[in-house]
Amino acid sequence: MKRLWSRLPLLARLLLAVLLAVGLAGGLRLALFFGEATAQAQAQQARTLALAGELLAPLLAEAAVTGDYGAASELMHRLVDTDPALAEVEWVYGRSRMKAAGVPEPAVYPRWFETLIGLEAQPHARPVRLGDVDYGQLLLTIDPVGLRNTIWLGFQRQMLAIGAAMMAASVLLSAVLFSSLQALRAILSAMRRFRGDSTVRAPVLGSPETRTLAENFNRMADEIAANLAALREARAHWQGFAQLHQATLLAIADAVIVCDAEGQITQMNAVAERLTGWSRSKATGRAAREVFRLVDPASGLVMPDPVAAALHLRAAIGGRTGTASLESRDGTLWPVEATAAPIRDEAGVLHGCVLVFRDRTQHEQIQQRLNWQALHDALTGLPNRYLFSDRLAQAIARSERQPQLIAVCLFDLDRFKPVNDRLGHAAGDELLRQVARRAQEVLRDTDTLARFGGDEFALVLPDLRQVDEAESIAQRLLERLAEPFVLGAETVEISASLGYTVYPFDPGDPDLLLRHADQAMYAAKHSGRNRLHLYDVASDQMQEAHRQQLDRVRLALEQREFEWHYQPKVDMRRGVVVGFEALARWRHPERGLLSPLAFLPYMESGPLAIELGVQALEAALAQLEAWAAEGFQTRVAVNVAPDHFTADRFVDDVRAVLARHPSLPSGSLEIEIVESAAIDDLARAVAVIEACHVLGVTVALDDFGTGYASLSYLKRLPVDVLKIDQSFVRDLLDDRGDLALIEAVAALGSVFGRRVVAEGVELAEQGVVLMRLGCDLAQGYGIARPMPAAEVLAWRETWRADPAWALWADTRWELSDFPLLVAQYDHLRWIRTVLATLDGAPVRLGHEELVDHHACRLGHWYDTHGRRRYGALPAYRALEPVHAEVHRVGRALVAAAASGQKETAAQLGLELLALKDRVLELLARLQIEVLHAGAPDAALGDDQA
After folding, report:
1. How confident is the model at residue 41 (pLDDT cuts 50, 70, 90)?
2. Which contacts of 149-152 are long-range, i.e. CB under 8 A and separated by 24 or more positions?
3. Residue 376: pLDDT above 50?
4. Is 327 helix (H, G, I), strand (E, B) or coil?
5. Which residues form the GGDEF domain (predicted)?
6. CA–CA separation, 389 vs 509, rounded Å?
7. Do 774 and 683 belong together in one domain?
8. 864: DSSP letter
9. Residues 699 and 577 reside in one and the same domain
10. What pTM was computed for the model?
11. How far apart (Å, rounded) are the C-alpha atoms in residues 834 and 581?
12. Count of domains forming the chain
């Protein structure tokens, strides 16, 4: 039925539906009609019977009283004839009966209607009474045929009305559907054509409903077309993605196998084909466990399948590193590292598994090499410190089971650095390799030779019966290393210094034994090099004292017991302060303020020196900020130990301390380093200095001239300042060599664009000579001693440059005037020597130098160089009588002091000081005459000749 309905045309289905609806409505109307008609018929039947009974019963009672039964019969027949609904009237009176029957009405309805209507004849009994007398019973019967005919006629009229309604509905619906048929056909046609062409759209025609239907269809078609376009784009994208996925799979350096949810292989790349020995075509569709077989390399047992485990646990399985090997199809074992992970979609549905594994052969080879390198020196192939310590520990453990002596030795090469610097690092490396080979030639098979780094080597000599054996082996080693080495075209000679200790006479652990051997090695080096030295207890006690002091210095650093004094640097030519050098002092809680000699020897290297440097940087910048707050802007130089400067952390330390004081201008901080810190690793020194420059920090090379500095180093080293060591400045007026060296350094500074600072200036004459040589910047006790920060501002307000500096500041005098400055210095030294006798000091002058004013150094200058160059100047001529009086008073003072005449000697001392000032005044006047008038030409003739 359903299939038949679906095959009917739309119009037929609509008509049937409408007719069915109308029919259902008509059926309902007929049912209501039947109910109403039947009820009305029954009510009419009851009324007819009641009315007939009411009319006839009294009449029959009267007839009975009168005995006129004929009238009664006539009356009954007349009633039946006049009312066709009455089928029969019967009067039962006693045993008599009287009946009248009507003519039956013919039925006009079909038999089925009689059954359907269900309306039957209903008899009605009524007593016939008159007063209290009963005259029988009247029986009335209704004929239902008439009632049925009436209902049938009504039924026919209802059926005609229903049929007319159905006909009208069919006609109207057909008209409406026919009017929309063209639009519906167009829509239907568009729907059919849309299957092959998604651009087809339905025309919007007809009724509002069909127009709406067409519009909805078109909107639906637009959405479908858009979805189709998106699907095509997505298909193209995923096809490209699939191709990229395939290309990626093939390009991955690791081996990759992809399996479905059943663990069967669907894809694999070339690396997986190579390692498993299976081609992709043959492996596809096979279970992963057939292609990827993991076995234990030690036992050969097959290990669990990671793919099956990942699929079962629905979790990644990995970490089979170094414990599993992949058995290839041809039986080859590959050490692999494998990881298997399940493949799920966004809903968590399991779709398969991906297995990634890599060949660890090269990795294991590299690991073996790394393990070897971790225990050996890369340059010589000897054991390194770690392997050496292990073997030493084993030797100690073995000696406890079988009592034997063990010698622990350390040696390094004498004069290795000059060879390395002169011939280069390649030659130095070759020399170290030859040293290792020669040492191994001397040693026994049971001995261990190790390189600790640089030119430092260590030895373990086990199984010794007496100490002399260790000394004999060590001596042979030193003799072998003292033989010449051939390095390319060069032949070099070096030696070694060796220190050793013997276990169990020295009952220490491996670290302590090495430390004792190291102390013995330095003792050998300090005793003359190319020596060997055995560690002893007395030396250990000295070292213990050193360690205790070292611990106290470390505690002082931790408790911030260090403070900084500041020594000024001045520009002598301009007469201004240009900066300060921060110098550490130890404020000891018990011993008071201690000089650097109390702590610097214990912290020249290592972490303590670095910590002191960090504290010095912080203190200097904090002090600069404090001075800046009081309106004083300057620069502070901080000394940095070599170990700190060459440490990896140095630039970070400087950057960090600058970051904590961001208000200071660039250039406020200067770093002072010694030559060795820069020259030991020149490339690193250059990099660190350039990093400091980026931070706005200048760098000074301290104690210049005392180390290894050369023109080549100075050219490559981008320092900003050269500091001339005070040892050259101190003897400047006495030693022509120092004078020449300072002049050379000043010239180098000018050539290379470096500022030059002279340290240790104590006399005004030294400053004048320094300015003449091109060095205007100076510091020293003659300017100011290092002072606490609290005293700096007050000193700055009161300090004035020496008048002699201002005198010569703007004049370029000749070096031939140098003896004039020395003469002033010599006179002051002579005065100090004579005045020292007042305190009981011996006379440190020769007799002639004391008594004869021509025999002292000032007199010698006066009679020679002074006469030739300045003889025509008035101040020169006025000097001799005053100088002669100086010697007379000085001679008398020495005699009075020698004879115990203290008061006389003291009085003569005051007279001598006044004469000294007079001499200095005349020498200063002479300098002014030289500057402003120049030396007379006549006086210069002999000198030029």
Report:
1. confident
2. 149/105, 149/107, 149/108, 149/109, 150/37, 150/41, 151/34, 151/37, 151/38, 151/41, 151/109, 151/117, 151/119, 152/108, 152/109, 152/113, 152/117
3. yes
4. strand
5. 404-537
6. 10
7. yes
8. I
9. yes
10. 0.43
11. 36
12. 5
Residue 275, pLDDT above cutoff 60? yes
pLDDT computed for residue 941 by the predictor: 37
What's the rounded Cα separation, in Å, for the pair 5 and 12? 9
Does residue 545 lie within any of the structural domains? no
**Overall average pLDDT of the 115-120 stretch:** 74
- Cα–Cα distance, 435 to 424 (Å, whole number): 17
Is residue 210 one of the residues assigned to a domain?
no
Question: Which position has the higher pLDDT, 803 or 934?
Answer: 803
Give the integer Cα–Cα distance in Å for 731 and 229: 98
Instruction: Indicate the angle between helix axes 682-694 and 650-659, nearest 10 degrees.
Output: 10
Q: Are residues 806 and 828 in the same domain?
A: no
The answer for residues whose C-beta is within 8 angstroms of residue 804's C-beta and 6 or more apart is: 764, 765, 767, 768, 924, 927
Q: Are 779 and 843 members of one domain?
A: no
Query: Could you please report the per-residue DSSP string of 656-669?
Result: HHHHT-TTSPTT-E
Mean pLDDT of 725-731: 83
Token output for 444: 């026994």
User: For residues 924 and 920, what is the distance between their CA atoms, to the nearest angstrom?
Assistant: 6
Q: Quick one: which of 461, 530, 466, 526 has its CA closest to 500? A: 461
Q: Please give the Cα distance from 60 to 877 (Å, whole number).
A: 206
- Structure-block tokens of residue 251: 């390009």
Asked if the structure places residue 219 within a domain, the reply is no
Q: Which of 535, 568, 585 is the last residue of a domain?
A: 535
For 450-460, what is the mean pLDDT? 92
User: Could you give phi then psi for residue 130, rounded to 5 degrees?
Assistant: -140, 115
Residue ranges of E strands in 213-332: 255-260, 265-268, 293-295, 325-327
Q: Please say if the pLDDT value at position 559 is more than 70.
A: yes
Hey, which residues does 581 pair with through a beta bridge? 567, 637
Do residues 759 and 849 share a domain? no
Q: Read off the pLDDT band of 639 (50, 70, 90).
A: very high
896 and 759 both lie in a single domain: no
Q: According to the model, what pLDDT value does residue 935 have?
A: 46
Q: Which long-range contacts (CB under 8 A, 24 or more apart) does 289-293 make?
A: 289/263, 291/257, 291/265, 292/257, 292/326, 292/338, 292/355, 292/357, 293/326, 293/327
| DSSP label at residue 376 | B
- pLDDT, one tens digit per residue, over 341-357 is 998 888 888 889 998 88
Q: How high is the pLDDT of residue 212?
A: 81
Residue identified by tokens 């170290």 is: 432
Residue 548 belongs to a domain: no
**What per-residue string of b and e applies to 802-841 under the rule 16 or more CB within 10 Å gives b?**
bebbeebbeeebeeebbbbbbbbbbbbbbbebbbebbeee
Total residue count of the chain as it appears in this document? 945
Query: What is the C-alpha to C-alpha distance for residues 514 and 531, in angstroms, rounded to an integer?
Result: 18
Which of 717, 715, 775 shows the shortest CA–CA distance to 742? 775
Tens of pLDDT, residue by residue over 150-184, are 788 887 787 888 788 778 777 777 766 666 666 77
Q: Strands 456-464, 562-571: parallel, antiparallel or unpaired by DSSP?
A: unpaired
Distances in whole angstroms, Cα of residue 62 to Cα of each of 33, 94, 99, 134, 539? 44, 16, 17, 11, 177
Handedness of CA 891, 892, 894, 899 (dihedral sign): positive
Contacts 24+ apart (CB under 8 A), 787-790: 787/565, 787/566, 787/567, 788/563, 788/565, 788/566, 789/564, 789/565, 789/566, 789/623, 789/626
Q: Crossing angle for the helix pair 818-835 and 874-898, nearest 10 degrees?
A: 20
Question: Which tokens hold the place of 767?
Answer: 């400053």
- Same domain, yes or no: 624 and 528: no
Considering just the CA atoms, what is the radius of gyration of the chain in Å? Answer: 67
- Closest by CA to 823, choosing from 857, 853, 852, is 857
Report the distance separating Cα 145 and Cα 106, nearest Å: 7
Strands 755-758 and 777-778: parallel
Q: Do both 414 and 454 map to the same domain? A: yes
Neighbouring residues of 888: CB distance < 8 A, sequence distance ≥ 6:
none
3-state class (DSSP) for residue 139: strand
